[in-house]
Amino acid sequence: MRSAVVAALLLLSVEPGMVSAQSRETPLSEGRRAVTVQGERYGTLADENPVTLRVRGVFQKIVRAAGRRPGVAPEVHVLDTPRVIAEALPGGLVVVSRGFVDLARADENALAFILAHEVAHLVRDHHGVLESLGLLGAGRTPGRAGPTTEQPGRATATAEQVRAYQTLELEADRLGVLFAALAGYQTSAAVPILLTLIARTGPDAFHPDPKERAGAIREQLAEVSDHLEVFHAGLFLLAVGRYLEAARVLEHFLGLFPSREVLSTVGVAYHKEALRWVPPPEFQHLLVIDPATRAPMPRGAAAHPAFRPMIERALHYYTLAVDADPTYAPAANNLGAAYLDLGERELALGYINRALREDATLAAAYNNRALASIAGRDYPRAEEDLLRAARLAPGLREVAVNLARLYETLGRADEARRWQPRARPAESLAREHGGETVGPVSPGAPLDQLREWIEEPRVRQIRIPLGAGASGDLRLLVLAQRGVVVLARNNAVDAVGILPRQRVASGRGVRAGDAGARVEAAYGAPSGTDGIQALNVWGYPARALAVLLVNDRVQTVWVGRPGKSER
Asked: Comparing C-alpha atoms, which of 165, 60, 57 is closest to residue 121?
């Protein structure tokens, strides 16, 4: 998809009479033929070239955030030309040029947004949409930056077709911002790189006036940034133990961002909610968002009636995540853990082993395979897998708990005692619970206290329905001028967070940009550490507090009402 104004869709140039022959090609064959033609024209940078390595490093992070789809095997190629080119091709291929990388200069955030825009075209199958509208196969006028409305042997594109084309571009903008953000990049780079592209390539018949386009992009980026706060709110609720609310908030976000990571995270929320309704475990399994999250495995006693529907919702979302990317090891591990909870050991082992084939360093999967071995009384195999998990992730308390319990079961008391200290929960430096604030805002305060703020310009509100049984829906208020985001329910502040890159501080002085060590100095070690892509979530359930970090730097701090944890 061509980088004319917003990296527009590539419309392959074809000669009259060639359309029917080309239409018989598979999308991948069509895309590879286009790469070959461009490679012969411009040359292609070698795999070991520093520019290629840089592009592929960013591209792989974006692909992991976006999720792979059946039939799409994403690849990126770099053309050796100073011309500015960034295109998505049928079959899951993306082509960029050395000239485009030079245009982005050293700003990987800019490079990430355009690559994410192109990946969005692929995962949404925009080529297929254009083909259904009769637009795929439109020619390009030699020397023009973008597509024309003339198609070989056809009439000029209709206004309806042009509007459809622009709609796809806007969707790619929106998803591109989200993919880049979840991969850990700053979305503020999107507008500058797009304005630079507009200045270099000029408008074309499929795009509006550049100034109008830039204005629309700014509005859309603001809206997307606001919706990212819905995702952050969901992670906060998950980290502090409000699992069912977390699941429903994250489901709301899925309507905007249907990625494998979010699908799996919704599954984790439902899974943890299910485990609230069963007895405490003898051994503890590990769920994964991207690193590890924690939840117990029930054994023995009959489950509460609420358990089954919740675990089935978890299975549903884990399965969708695996379908979105069959190589995504965290979702396969989680699916295996869910089947362990249902007592389906062989099925669980199949998914856990699948996770380990895709990622041989996934400590949680070794832990879970050990639990399956314990269920089958294969204690030597269980010990081997638990020790391997401990080597891969020495900080996982659950692995130490399981090793200590296994050695007790085997009558090896000395070895059990060696693991017991590591099995104790992390101690917080500050023991008082709750009472935290963000800036001057306190969770539990009447929303009327913020009336003047809410009436300020640039305040956005997003309603989040929680469904039947909830005590009221949530409202997310993004107070940009104040640097905070407020989660409200029944006209009271339910939770509050710091907007990224704002200098608002928590009650203990933690700000966006602070290092992780500053967080530990203020609040102690977290009770749980979850993560998704570059984003790590440190949870303090007893404090109703969560800190989100990217590359060991605080992105936001969220605090809620004391005593709301569901555990």
From this structure: 165
Check: CB of residue 40 under 8 Å from CB of residue 100: no
Q: Which two tokens stand for residue 81?
A: 């030309």
| Cβ atoms of residues 334 and 364 within 8 Å | no
Count CB-CB contacts under 10 A for residue 338: 27
Residue boundaries of the structural domains of the chain: 19-208, 241-423, 431-560
Q: What is the pLDDT of residues 68-97, one digit of tens each?
A: 554 556 889 999 999 988 888 888 899 999
Q: How far apart are CA 224 and CA 257, in angstroms?
A: 10
Task: Read off the pLDDT of residues 312-369 as tens digits, 9 standing for 90 and up.
Answer: 999 999 999 998 788 888 999 999 999 999 999 999 999 999 999 999 999 999 999 9
Compute the average pLDDT of residues 15-41.
69
Indicate the SS3 state at residue 538. Answer: strand
Residues composing the chain: 567
Q: How far apart are CA 108 and CA 480, in angstroms?
A: 25
Our measurement of the distance from residue 178's CA atom to the centroid of its chain's CA atoms, rounded to an integer in Å, reads 8
3-state SS string over 512-524? CCCEHHHHHHHHC
CA 345 → CA 283, 311, 390, 543, distances in Å?
A: 15, 16, 23, 37
Q: At what angle do helices 190-201 and 108-123 cross, to 10 degrees?
A: 80
How many beta carbons lie within 10 A of that of residue 464, not counting itself? 19
The pairing of strands 474-479 and 459-464 is antiparallel
Burial of 106 (0-12, 13-18, 19+ CB in 10 A): exposed
Assigned token pair, 83: 């011309």
Per-residue b or e along 401-436, where b marks 16 or more CB atoms closer than 10 Å to that residue's CB: bbbbbbbeeeeeeebbeebbebbeeeebeeeebbeb
Pinpoint the alpha helices (H) of 240-282. Answer: 243-254, 260-275
Q: Provide the 8-state DSSP code for 429.
A: S
| AA letter at 249 | V
**Backbone angles phi and psi of 229, in degrees to 5:** -70, -25
Q: Which of 245, 244, 264 has its CA nearest to residue 254?
A: 264
- Angle at the Cα of 65 from the Cα atoms of 62 and 67, rounded to 5 degrees: 105
| CATH numeric code, 241-423 | 1.25.40.10
